[in-house]
Design a protein that fits this description.
It is a single chain. By secondary structure, the chain is α+β, with helices and mostly antiparallel strands. It folds into 2 domains: about 1-90 and about 340-400, Cytochrome p450 (Orthogonal Bundle); about 90-335 and about 400-455, Cytochrome p450, CATH 1.10.630. Helices cover about 50% and strands about 10% of the residues. The strands form 3 sheets. The chain has a 5-stranded mixed β-sheet with strand order 1-2-8-5-3. The two termini are about 40 Å apart. Bound molecules: protoporphyrin IX containing FE. InterPro entries: Cyt_P450, Cyt_P450_CS, Cyt_P450_E_grp-I, Cyt_P450_sf, Cytochrome_P450_monoxygenase.
Length: about 450
């Protein structure tokens, strides 16, 4: 990878703002295109969202500083305040001591020792869902991967049976909520911003429905006796096909777990896991299946690796180096979390740019992952780049974020994506029916707007 000189544009505020609206029209027209465009103006630039100045980070070293080195000097900012009615005090939206306490409580459920049991659960769910395909079926991949990811989170983290009714209710709510996040960020402050719109009404209704569904699942855990092992447990509340589970942990179930949280906090964490963990993993798998269908050479090498291992659950990181590179390349080129935000708690300087306390900050991992100065020929799907070239500098590859808020579900996401992909490629050929899918512009997650693929059994 090539290194970049630190460059700061003399004026910091980028040109092209419209009086009163600033860069809002360009941002609304195509947010990702705009963020790629501002990359050219310097390492730290200012855009105006209406009257609000927003500081955009375009340099890996700045990203690393804000997320990691000085990570505790920043909180999550306006986006997460506005998502408060949905995410509450869940991990994703919280900061400081509360965040640290919750993170410590939940961390054991995400430890990498659960990878084998997550792999088993993913294999079982993927095999069952693929068994419904008939040769020549057109599969709606965005919906299919979302359902799979919902089923896996319910089974592994919530230790709940993924009934069709519950899965359907979750899958109905999630896209509405994700569609609502960016408009919430862009809404003006004060009375005008609080006037209900059809979108905000749908958003609030979806949030209520999701919380209602989760309330039922939590109630069923509450009725289990404290300190007991949930059914199917092996050690410390772990199941053969699911790991520890966050709901049992938070309800104080299972040997060694003594924390019992109020229902509201448990709901906040459960909603957070669904919102942070389902669409991201589903989008990643959907892009991956599309890219593999466009690169038959990649598909054959993945098959060789799976066939040699003798089972699809072996597609986890350590055991399958080519899978690892393919997944990494997919996360680079189609980073689901295309935008991350922070707010400065203290003033700081970078070059001649002064960033005041309270300043809103954002950066796009996706724009950085496709910066030609960091990744030559950035739009090419090229898994071998990860072994051919040196590792990117700190801050240049952050699909799971970094620092105190780094994705807690990273190992689960890798396992799910690798094993589901391995199950599919070992038995099916998926081919994209329409043109290359376009990404949804306004979702909180970067995902294909629509992706239809034909499923044909693999010829051996
Ligand atoms: C490919 C899939 C995934 C991607 C790309 C992804 C990406 C991210 C990123 C970038 C962050 C950091 C956000 C920030 O710094 O503002 C994050 C945080 C988080 N993710 Fe993931 N994620 C994925 C899967 C999952 C899964 C499967 C779960 C759990 C079911 C999950 C749960 C969380 C939670 C709870 C946080 C907040 C962590 C904290 O603030 O301490 N994610 N994720």
């Amino acid at each position: 990878m090539t290194s970049r000189p630190a460059v700061v544009h003399p004026t910091a505020v980028i040109p092209g703002g419209v009086p009163g609206l600033g860069h809002l029209p360009a941002l609304v027209a195509d947010p990702l295109k705009f963020l790629r465009h501002v990359r050219g103006y310097g390492d730290l630039v200012v855009i105006r969202v209406g009257p609000l100045p927003v500081y955009v980070l375009n340099a890996p070293e700045l990203v690393h500083r804000v997320l990691v080195t000085d990570g505790t000097d920043f909180d999550k900012g306006r986006l997460f305040e506005r998502a408060g009615p949905v995410l509450g005090d869940g991990l994703l939206a919280s900061d400081g001591d509360h965040h640290l306490r919750q993170r410590r409580l939940l961390q054991p459920a995400f430890h990498r020792r659960h990878i084998p049991s997550w792999a088993k659960a993913t294999e079982a769910e993927s095999v069952a869902m693929c068994a419904q395909w008939r040769p020549g079926d057109a599969v709606d991949v965005v919906t299919w991967t979302r359902t799979l990811a919902t089923r896996i989170v319910l089974r592994t983290l919530f230790r709940a049976e993924p009934s069709d009714r519950v899965v359907a209710r979750v899958d109905r709510a999630l896209p509405v909520l994700l569609r609502g996040f960016i408009p919430r960020l862009l809404r003006p402050d004060g009375f005008v911003g609080r006037v209900p719109t059809p979108g905000s009404v749908r958003f609030d209704r979806a949030a209520r429905d999701l919380r209602g569904t989760l309330g039922e699942i939590i109630a069923s855990h509450r009725t289990a006796a404290p300190g007991t092992e949930p059914p199917g447990s092996s050690r410390a509340g772990e199941t053969e096909t699911g790991g520890t589970g966050i709901l049992p942990l938070m309800c104080g179930l299972g040997p060694g777990t003594h924390h019992e949280l109020p229902d509201k906090q448990i709901q906040d964490e459960a909603v957070t896991m669904l919102l942070a963990g389902v669409e991201t993993t589903a989008a990643s798998l959907a892009w991956l299946l599309h890219d593999i269908s466009q690169h038959p050479d990649v598909r054959s090498r993945l098959r060789q690796e799976t066939d040699a291992a003798g089972n699809t659950a072996a597609a986890t990181r350590q055991q399958a180096p080519y899978f690892h590179n393919v997944l990494k390349e997919n996360l680079r080129l189609h980073t689901p979390t295309w935008i991350l935000t922070r707010r400065a708690r203290h003033p700081f300087h970078y070059g001649h740019v002064h960033v005041p306390a309270g300043a809103e900050i954002l950066f796009s991992p996706l724009a950085m992952h496709t910066d030609p100065r960091l990744y030559p020929d950035p739009q090419r799907f090229d898994p071998d780049r990860w072994t051919r070239t040196a590792a990117p500098p700190p801050g240049a590859f952050t699909p799971f974020g970094a620092g105190v808020h780094k994705c807690i579900g990273e190992h689960l996401a890798w396992t799910e994506t690798a094993v589901a992909c391995s199950v599919i490629v070992s038995s099916w050929d998926l081919t994209t029916v329409s043109r290359s899918p376009r990404a949804s512009k306004y979702l909180g997650t970067h995902q294909p707007r629509r992706l239809l693929m034909t499923a044909v059994p693999r010829c051996r």
